[in-house]
Amino acid sequence: MELKGMMAVGGPQAWPACDEDIKRFVVELVELLKQELGDRLTGIYLHGSLAMGSYYRPKSDIDLIVVVENKLEAALAGKVGVAIARKSENRPTTGNVELSIISADAAKRVPIPVPFELHYSSTWHDRILNHEVDYSEERTDPDLASHLMYVWKRGIGLTGKPIPEVFGAVEWASFMDAVMDDFSWIIEEEHIVETPFYGVLNICRVLQLNSEDSRMVHSKDEGGEWGLKHLPVLYHPLIRQALDIYRSTEPVSEEQRRTGGKDWDRQMLLDFRDYARSYFL
């Protein structure tokens, strides 16, 4: 994959005041989806770090929820998936697009688990291009409850109907189930060693959610800052390293994204994992 116009830019970015090439890519992707979906399209909604003002170019993904009026026919879903995958190959950043297409009914009712028409991310890229996805099957994703909560709380409409008209409220318990499912994966075995800054900052974010009663949702950036204020001092150097690497402007390859291309203290990561496990005992 060729990365177009990569550059190192300092500080967090937010839509729409982000690097011009990132903004242009998102606008072009929105236009592509409008062309592919036509009058079936209800709206396209940005969530995640770019919507919350904590997008760091070398590490962050671009997170989108696309809502369509009705379920997509298998042939159309396959065509749209290929178009998204091809467009993503010309993105200007290492981080990819993470995008789900859901029906207007699913967006409004939020059944658990949430059904989706199409999902695109780096892990789906080759399967989509190799036509290995069976779009005639009904598929659900437990993580979508979390994504839809972020849209509802802190999302940005890029085109189409306003968020309050399209999305129903996500039950907090369903949101927390999705969050804790991801948390459980992080603290299983040695997964935190495989994805250290993601694991450390998400642990902080989950502990923040469980310690507060605000029913607000937080970015990884905000979770890390909370961890430095509220978690034991012993873990502050690890949390600070995770934040520094997450925020770094140093370009990284796809292979380096999980670690930031840096060395980590394996034992400290496992100790922090064990602390996180004990938090819920």
Automatic annotation (TrEMBL):
Where does the record place the Adenylyltransferase AadA C-terminal domain?
Answer: 165-257
Query: Entry's InterPro entries?
Result: AadA_C, NT_sf, Polymerase_NTP_transf_dom
The family database entries (Pfam families) matched by this protein are listed as: AadA_C (PF13427), NTP_transf_2 (PF01909)
- Which controlled-vocabulary keywords does the entry list? Transferase
A GO molecular function annotation here is: nucleotidyltransferase activity
Domain named Polymerase nucleotidyl transferase is located at 29-92
Transferase as UniProt keyword: yes
* Name of the protein in its database record: DUF4111 domain-containing protein
